[in-house]
Amino acid sequence: MVLSLGHDEILVWFFRPDIVEDRHLAAFGQVLDDAERARAGRFHFPEDSRSYCCAHALGRCVLQAATGVPARDIRFRDNAHGKPELDGEPGVSGLRFNLSHTRGLVCCGITRNRDLGVDVECVSRDVDVDDLARRVFAPEEVASLQGLAEEARCEAFYSIWVLKEAYTKAVGRGLSIPLDGFSIRLDPPCIEIGALLRGDPDAGSTDEWDVRLMHPMPGYVLAAAVRAAPGDGMLYRFCEMTPDALASLCGDPDGEEGGLPILDGGQDILPNMHGG
């Protein structure tokens, strides 16, 4: 059964690679293509290889549910700036997706007919957030961090960071979008396009972007950015995928009943948020 996905919906699944077992990884490997398996083998640290495999298996199984195409048969192409897109499979008309992975958490978002980006990061206390913010953030963002206590400043830095990453991934032009060319506000989360990007049709304008920010588990922050006016009434649904459910989908294109969490419960619908 193909997953129903409305034009005003953004669905995001997140997954914890640190709790998978070898039997799960073996199942995930069944749906990856040769290039993905080769890339997974080139990571220096096993944790990074595991996160990559989990993210790509998750992405393939989510796309399988949305298109009806078996996960192992889905094909991708890169756009001119290297962003992966679906490569003309039946049932993919207008379908957009994006992946993100870090140690300990991966995610996949999908929507229809709208540019979408997702990003997830571990909130690390080992990063000099003040120095990094001064080097890559817009002046307004640097100013917003000043005066905050150390813990609050670190949380705010990563919230800004994932929202910036989600936006640039949605635009799909990689490093050609300068991180200081737009700014993030956190209360409530929103994007403001700066002078450097005004008039750029890909970058869009401030009123063309809608974002969400959430904390799927302690120590992590996840963001989604979609090309939609904030007043368009977009419905964001976030849900955790379990290792058993994902392994079942990898091994059986139809999946067991309830294998892919269908996001129709009120508990899965999270509002725009900043905080714990």
Report on the structure:
Residues 255-259 and 263-276 have low confidence and may be disordered. This protein is an alpha+beta fold. It is built from seven helices and eleven strands. The strands form four sheets. The chain has a four-stranded mixed β-sheet, with helices on one face. Strands 6-10-9 form a three-stranded antiparallel β-sheet, covered by helices on one side. A two-stranded antiparallel sheet has the order 2-3. It has helices spanning 22-29, 34-41, 46-67, 129-136, 139-145, 150-171, 243-251; strands spanning 9-15, 76-78, 84-86, 95-102, 105-112, 116-122, 182-186, 189-193, 209-214, 220-227, 235-240. The two termini are 35 Å apart. It has a single domain, classed as Ribosomal Protein L22, Chain A (Alpha-Beta Complex), CATH 3.90.470.20. Strand 9 (209-214) and strand 10 form a beta hairpin. Helix 2 runs antiparallel to helix 3. The radius of gyration is 18 Å and the shape is globular.
